Amino acid sequence: MKATSIAPSNIAFIKYWGKKDEILRLPENGSISMNLSNLLTTTTVEFNHTYKSDSITINGIQEPNDGNRAIKHLDRIRKLASLSQKAKVVTINNFPSSTGLSSSSSGFAALTLAGTKAAGLELSEKELSILARQGSGSACRSIPDGFVEWLDGDTSESSYARSLYPTDYWVIADVVAIVSEGKKDISSAEGQKLVNSSPFFSVRRSHMAEKIKKMKEILKEKNFRDFGELLEAEALELHAIMLTSTPSLIYWTPGTFKIMKLVKKWRTEGLSVYFTINTGQDIHLICEKKNIKKIVVKLKDIKEVKNIIVNYPTIGARLNPNHLF
Ligand code: PMV
């Protein structure tokens, strides 16, 4: 059987960085995110007895099978469905991968939904989130709709994401500035393994539960200024951990840094906008809908900005009738 799914990437306002269980991908702390309407992965999966081996094609390029994380994920799905057939997987991202836009979150969420459906499984949202988490942690947050919390569970069963608010709860935007399409040299999966080498990680760990609580209170009140201040401080704290890991992780490029400084300047001029950054050089500018145009105009003037993608909160992974093959 064949199935196709479309899943959004998500941007975390409170981030996941570090695992308390490497195999199950149980994070050190809970996290809070929003699904992004214009950073999408479409994936078609077909299991068939005529296939001799798995094949994974991403944006027209066939991936090597050795140590392939998508194939490991297909194995999880096969185990759940008691299936031995090999699969053909074709994936298209409508945005660059490995530059800080979390293609692994949309990618593993889409693979989880399309793969389980193609294998004849009917999983609940919670079950899909638990399974997606094992492919890539942040992928569990791309399963439910809108504004999402990944719960800080100590077991596989209790570590999943659920929707806090639907897509239309708060019309804010994530204006993504793509500053270069070059790939980062260290993946998040690899970078995270260094987390305990930062002397500041124990401090971070000790206040994460409090931060999650604070962010949930702010989301309830929809106070944009408090929201922006907290999410930007959180991004900088995450990068402080990365910068002070051994070896250090430096994901910013001159373009990233230039925009960080400009965002702070624009705020002093009365424009309410805050930044957040994942593992990569691209930078996410969070604003209210009324300020999108002004921000886009300013970004267009910056020579390092190669592309701008405006995102609104959107629904999580969904099935789609249009197969890619
Ligand atoms: O799920 P991964 O392995 O791509 O890690 C995601 C890490 C961050 O994007 C930096 C933070 C987050 O919570 O999305």
Automatic annotation (TrEMBL):
Annotated Gene Ontology cellular component terms: cytosol
Bilayer-crossing regions: none
Keyword Ubl conjugation: no
Entry EC no(s): 4.1.1.33
Gene Ontology MF terms: ATP binding; diphosphomevalonate decarboxylase activity
EC primary class: lyase
Residue ranges of domain Diphosphomevalonate decarboxylase-like N-terminal in the record: 7-161
Xref: InterPro entries: GHMP_kinase_C_sf, Mev_decarb, Mev_diP_decarb, MVD-like_N, Mvd1_C, Ribosomal_Su5_D2-typ_SF, Ribsml_uS5_D2-typ_fold_subgr
Superkingdom field: Bacteria
Gene Ontology biological process terms in this record: isopentenyl diphosphate biosynthetic process, mevalonate pathway
One protein family per Pfam: MVD-like_N
Keyword annotations: ATP-binding, Lipid biosynthesis, Lipid metabolism, Lyase, Nucleotide-binding
Lyase in keyword set: yes
The Mvd1 C-terminal domain, residue ranges: 175-304
PANTHER family: DIPHOSPHOMEVALONATE DECARBOXYLASE
Listed NCBIfam families: mevDPdecarb
Family: Belongs to the diphosphomevalonate decarboxylase family.
UniProt protein name: diphosphomevalonate decarboxylase
Originating species: Candidatus Gottesmanbacteria bacterium RIFCSPHIGHO2_01_FULL_39_10
Taxonomic lineage: Bacteria, Candidatus Gottesmaniibacteriota
